[in-house]
Amino acid sequence: MQQVVIATRKRDSEAVIAALQEVGVLHLRPISGGPLNTGSLSGQDAQARRDDERMLARAESTIAELGAYRPAPAPLPAVAEWEGVVEGAAVPVSTLAKQRQELQSDLDVERNYGDAVRALARMVGGLDRSRRLALVPFLLQPTDNLGDLEAALRETLPERYAIATEQVGQNRVGVVATLKAERDAARTALSKVRLGELRLPGRFDNMPLADAAAAMEDIRQNGVSRQADLNTQREKLAQQHGPALYAVRDALKDRVAVHDVRAVSARGKYSLVMQGYVPVDRLGALDATLDKFGDSVCAELHPVDEHHDDQIPVELKNNSYVKPFQVVMGLMSLPKYGSFDPTWVIAVFFPLFFGIIIADVGYGLLFLWFGMWLLGKARRNEGWDLSFFGAYVPPATLKDLGYVVNVMAAWTILWGFLTGELFGTLGEHLGLFYINPELLNNLWSWTGIHYPTEAAHGAAHHAGLIPTLFPRLETGYFSNVALVFALCFGIIQVLWGWAIRIQMGIRHKDPIHTWEGIALGGGVLGLIMMAFASRAGKDFGALTNFGSPLVILMWAGFIAFIVGYIRIIKHFPMLPIELLSQGGAVMSYARIFAVGLVSAILAKLCSDVGWAMYERIGFLGILIGIVLGALLHFFVLALTLIGHIVQPLRLHMVEFLNPTGFNNETSPRYNPLRRLSPSPSAQVPVQPVPSAVSGPVK
């Protein structure tokens, strides 16, 4: 990234900014202070900005009311027609939006009050049209006592009232009839027993009950069809006005962006100065663009100061495999410029951890189907309307999500074959997977485990097509192996995180963070080696056996911690406590084993329940077992899926990235000035001058 300063004549500034929008490489940075004017525009510039922003806001609100997503590109109307295009769509759309809002309000009122109003209308007959009588409706909760209300009415209006109630759902609605002059007295009686008058919202407030009941009955019968008609009208308006409206909206955004650029630039009476950042590989495009303006533009480059400049933007650049995982990185802040980009680490380990946790061929095939479905929508240029979440996923994001889901599915299927799981133990019941004691002993005997040949699984447990190589469900003898296997990832990633901390400290010439990384990295290494050398605390006498490389690494790590701690003790006096916390960070990777084992046990129970129905009932049991097992698997997967995704993400965000310092600092996203509306270069008025740029961009 290079910092660039661009100076131009004020009269050419609009053409220069438009050209910069066209090339789309300059990330602007506001200029503050100095001899030139900065900040808000004034005079004619301010008025032009207000006019464009007003029209843009009108276009934006109309698009929002249409509920339309971006249609196919349409030609941009002439500038003189923009206001007509916007107003031509805004007037009918706002009228229709008002009708839809009023109808939705009526539907909500009918849903909440319809039954109560109809009951009240039946009770009062025609009394609601009487000139002498007043009606005060009320609502009784199941815990309210009608006798208390009657006592209050007798005290306030002795012999001058009538009361009726009717059950509606769990509550009771009622009405008090009294003389109009004594309506307030009846309301007072209601308030004495903590009841209030039932008031209808909106246009129904002053209606007679009979009229309100008739109106709500009409809404109940015809409201949904009216709403469908209005939605159809909205779709037609979207098809009619959407393409031109989007084209004008984008062009207005470009014009407003020109005003924004002027506002963040330094302005004099005859000049304008911009500053920003350009990636090194795009300097040629910037140079070619500014060359067109000759002496009317001067540009100067400066190397960025990545150690002290917090405003340098960041653009993630990754290969074709890693790039789709930037959608996962969107859940985190961007790395600081010049530091470590963890996207490729997440691309490698996140789907791997997910696959180890789920580790089921059947579930993996379901994820593969879902990933292919997402990719299919993306290929058809279709988005995913998640209106119940108030969200819309565009096709480009669906493409990345589908890719990520497919990678997760591939690891899930692979680990499903290793663990011998197909919808839990269904594969075992079908004879697809089986346990081979001799093979397992050959594979894992070096860990000290031995498959118990006297296991009470029966001969069927040892017969099938594909042997299980990682039997995590065999908790009687394999749990420790699976647990240590998961912890190995913690050992790798936590030590790796502190190694990155050391590297970044050396690169930025920051001795405090360098020695912090040496101290905690060495201390964590010492704790890990101590655990292995002492066999998890069973033999502390082995810690003095200097013939063991584990013991040598342990003491080297502890010495590194002591030396590092002494160097930074005044900055981090509580570092020994942080060391214990980092030891806990390694242990956090046991989640991979624990969450995965719980998932496997639940899947096993689902399949075993369904298989038991087949064994007990026969053919009918097959049908019942399939339905019951499928429902249980769906329920368990839906209940646990979020946790299976969150746990690997948490291990990366916290346990791995905290030591690197990733979560302490961030940089803004590279967001270059770009043109949204299509614009041929002929529309950009360029001042033809023969001379070269006075400050060439190299």
Notes on the structure:
InterPro entries: V-ATPase_116kDa_su (IPR002490), V_ATPase_I_N (IPR040574). It is found in: Membrane. Residues 673-698 are annotated as: Disordered. Residues 677-698 have a biased composition (Low complexity). Residues 112-200 form the V-type ATP synthase subunit I N-terminal domain. The chain has helices at residues 13-23, 43-66, 82-124, 146-156, 183-192, 209-264, 283-291, 326-329, 343-358, 361-379, 395-419, 426-429, 437-444, 475-507, 511-533, 549-568, 575-587, 590-617, 619-660; strands spanning 2-9, 27-28, 133-140, 161-168, 171-179, 266-267, 271-278, 297-303, 384-386, 391-393, 433-434, 466-467. Residues 681-698 have low confidence and may be disordered. Strands 1, 2, 6, 7 and 8 form a 5-stranded antiparallel beta sheet that branches. It starts with a strand and ends in a 38-residue tail after the last helix. Helix 13 (437-444) links the parallel strand 11 and strand 12. Helices cover 57% and strands 9% of the residues. By secondary structure, it is α+β, with helices and mostly antiparallel strands.
How would you summarize the topology of this molecule?
Layout: E1 2-9, H1 13-23, E2 27-28, H2 43-66, H3 82-124, E3 133-140, H4 146-156, E4 161-168, E5 171-179, H5 183-192, H6 209-264, E6 266-267, E7 271-278, H7 283-291, E8 297-303, H8 326-329, H9 343-358, H10 361-379, E9 384-386, E10 391-393, H11 395-419, H12 426-429, E11 433-434, H13 437-444, E12 466-467, H14 475-507, H15 511-533, H16 549-568, H17 575-587, H18 590-617, H19 619-660
Parallel strand pairs: 11-12
Antiparallel strand pairs: 1-7, 1-8, 2-7, 3-5, 4-5, 6-7, 9-10
Helix pairs in contact: 1-6, 1-7, 2-3, 2-6, 3-6, 4-5, 9-11, 9-18, 9-19, 10-11, 14-15, 14-17, 14-18, 14-19, 15-16, 15-17, 18-19
